[in-house]
Specification:
The chain is of the alpha/beta class and about 140 residues long. Helix content is about 35%, strand content about 20%. The termini are far apart. Keywords: Cytoplasm, Disulfide bond, Electron transport, Redox-active center, Transport.
């Protein structure tokens, strides 16, 4: 009645599935989206006293070039962990966009100590990267 099966049973679950014992680190986006001008203002005021570069991505859900830049911004946020990346939808927070003179999307506004230090209008990945690298190193 009893069959004699001789098998080797792996000692750990990853071995059983030929999987690595450690999971790879996932890239986490450091982009903070604001949907309230009050919350944005509180966050902005808190950053004024730091020397941290803030990159605001003014975007819109209907904007094709904005959608194309989204993975780029996520990659930049993962790479430049000393930079704060913020996403603001111009249709949700139109007064904030107006305050920064945003007239086209995407527009990237670079801020340090509460002051605009640079701006990139359009989906210019290389131009934005150069300006981030330039301003993140500058102390004002």
């Amino acid at each position: 009645m009893g069959a004699n099966y001789s098998t080797t049973i792996p000692t750990t679950w990853p071995e059983a599935n030929n999987m690595p014992t450690t999971m790879p680190q996932l890239k986490r986006s450091q982009v903070i989206a604001f949907h309230s001008s009050t919350k944005w203002k509180l966050h902005f005021d808190a950053l004024k006293d730091t020397n941290k570069l803030v990159v605001i991505d003014f975007t819109a859900t209907w904007c094709g070039p904005c959608k194309n830049m989204e993975p780029v911004i996520n990659d930049f946020a993962a790479k430049y962990t000393d930079v704060e990346f913020v996403k603001i939808d111009v249709d949700e927070l139109d007064k904030v966009a107006e305050e920064y003179g945003v007239q086209a999307m995407p527009t990237f506004v670079l801020i340090k100590k509460g002051k605009v230090v640079d701006k990139v209008v359009g989906a210019d990945k290389d131009g934005l990267k150069k300006k981030i690298e330039k301003h993140r190193a500058i102390s004002i």
